[in-house]
């Protein structure tokens, strides 16, 4: 396999990992106003991702760095043309991270409410805008002969892209709510399951609409195969949640997110940034990639480091696999 093609799929894998892992973090954050009836509930919800959210978020740093190194032309066009949406995502991620660390520093209810709001907004904004960004990448945007984006912010907010954003928002929300049910007990667990049942229906409708639209616009055989797996997994997750099988539902949703992102990359291949105004201006794997030497060095680094990263991530989740209970939170508060 050509190294530039290999790195296209490595970048795809890194974004798949990011959206699967940080996606349910976003969902947990967005669930606060729906599931957090009191401060203890909200602390339980936040603590479900407390040990892992920062590790999950590092996947986007690795994905961005790999994109910069393997496809500098793609990186330059994407980060210049989509500057404002990506800046909003960055600011939202910073606000969310700060809130996780500072929320518990003072006892006042008003202090905590402000940081809770930052967590909610800091989760919802990336969940929406990542979908908008990737939908625009797949659909194509106007580029000049030097591969510079020539549109405006409002060009990015087209119906197809907004549907993509709504799909990721709902998908991450449902994934996060199922994770809350998986990691908690008692009344909170039951409420999370019921909320996931309701949001799951909306997610199925939005995801089906988005994938069908994408398929008819730029679908390939591999896109349809991956989209079909995503659809079946999403329905399976909804059914598993209805039976109270949170672990199965969470796994199916992870498969749904993974195959949906993979399907978008399959629809994009072999382009990396299609030009909607003139196909001759499109960025492809061939004209956007780094030199063969650079890709060779990166391949050896990835071969050595990736298994270590995956092993450490798996170990972390195993260590923090137990449920978070109200009793444990109240016991800490009592001290």
UniProtKB/TrEMBL annotation:
Keywords noted in UniProt: Cell membrane, Electron transport, Heme, Iron, Membrane, Metal-binding, Transmembrane, Transmembrane helix, Transport
InterPro entries: Cyt-d_oxidase_su2
GO cellular component terms attached to this protein's record: cytochrome complex; plasma membrane
One GO biological process term: aerobic electron transport chain
The keyword Cell membrane belongs to this UniProt entry's keyword annotation: yes
Bilayer topology annotation: Multi-pass membrane protein
UniProt entry tagged with the keyword Ligase: no
MF terms (GO), sorted A to Z: electron transfer activity; metal ion binding; oxidoreductase activity, acting on diphenols and related substances as donors, oxygen as acceptor
Taxonomy, superkingdom: Bacteria
Segments traversing the membrane: 6-32, 74-94, 115-139, 159-183, 195-215, 221-240, 247-269, 297-320
Compartments it resides in: Cell membrane
UniProt main location, coarse: membrane
NCBIfam families hit by this protein: cydB
Family: Belongs to the cytochrome ubiquinol oxidase subunit 2 family.
Protein name: Cytochrome c oxidase assembly protein
Organism: Agromyces bauzanensis
Gene, per the UniProt record: cydB
